[in-house]
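Protocol step 4 of 5: obtain the predicted structure for the target chain.
Materials: sequence only (see below). No template structures provided, no constraints applied. The aim of this step is simply to have a reference model before the mutagenesis design in step 5. Sequence pasted as it appears in the construct record:
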Amino acid sequence: MSSELLKGYSDLSEEFEIEKDEEEITIRPYEVDCLPNDYNITTLISLIERGYMKIPSFQRNYVWKKEMASKFIESIIIGLPIPQLFLFEKERNNFLVIDGQQRLVTIYLFKKQRFPKNDVGRSIIRKYLSFGKQIPDSELASDNFEEFKLKLPSTTAQKNQLDKLQYDTLSTIKDYDFKGEFDFNRTIRTITIKQIAPCEDDSSMFEIFSRLNSGGVMLKPQEIRMSIYYSPFYEKIVSELNLNSAWRRFLGKKEPDLHMSEIEVLVRAFALLDMSEQYKAPLRNFLNDFSKKAMNYKEEKVDSLSQLFFDFWSSCDKLPKEAFRNEKNKFVISLFDAVFVTVCEKIRSEGLNGRIIEPESLVKLKADPTFSDASQGNTASATSVSNRLKRARDIIELK
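Step 4 output (structure tokens):
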């Protein structure tokens, strides 16, 4: 891992009070089908454009530079072998890219003849391709993109014939149809994986994602969860709720975290609000189960939860921005989600009507011995979670 990426992970412990999760290490057998196919470039592009193949955001954005992308395209054009791709088949015509995101995006961009100039352009790529949507021509034509002309090195003795060419000009090299070769005769080995058993969960996808990427940056659980359980509810969290100014103020961070740690905090809060009676450790599986359930939320449900989220922050109007932090200035997730669940339950049953959280009741909760005990040691155990919620429900007041 690079020092910068390591810094990104270490920052999490500086921002949040890290909790312990009682997670059993179990060995379970899986039955998985692996189907190899040799797809040509035209077929791969078609799968992307039809929305059949979703390119989940393992990294925050598309990260390849033009030189690296050009060398990759050159390898395809001249017929050199390239690494195989891995897809996970969730259902018919719905594939997740497990390994090969950067390569597939590069191919797509080369066909579109556009390349990102800045971080905004890279964010646009993620915004659309990550969720099976085509990038609009208006976005590609903006100043955030430039022409994708191959940038290949030449020697003093010989110029690289492909240098400065783009997709439409590939066929101009003498009498050889490089464009046709690129489209139809260059294939990429693609392994499609489908879980057969166990059929009651999607846990093997976590194993596959993690193990295929174990040679590089280990993915955080929420990064994987975003790819597997993406839904309109998740889209609302990412595009709107996580950017809410009140949430970011209490969190103490202007920009969203690269590895989606804040998204996980919000998912956890909503999961406990919706399924606290069903909670059992490990926390990771609980969040997986909730995320899978949330995939079936109707638009009305998503809107209702969003409004509840906004009402909660209205109720925090008189709280200091350090309200959910401890003496070490770390954001305490267990405190936040206990208060969030309690207040949202009160709003649902009693209405908000301009009421706010009584600041003294929050101070009292922080000092409560039972709550404090349940916030130490094995904080993610069912007993600890239950005790924290019970004390928050008893102590937190809206006035």
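Step 4 remarks: The longest strand covers residues 187-197. Residues 77 and 182 are 5 Å apart (CA to CA).
Proceed to step 5.
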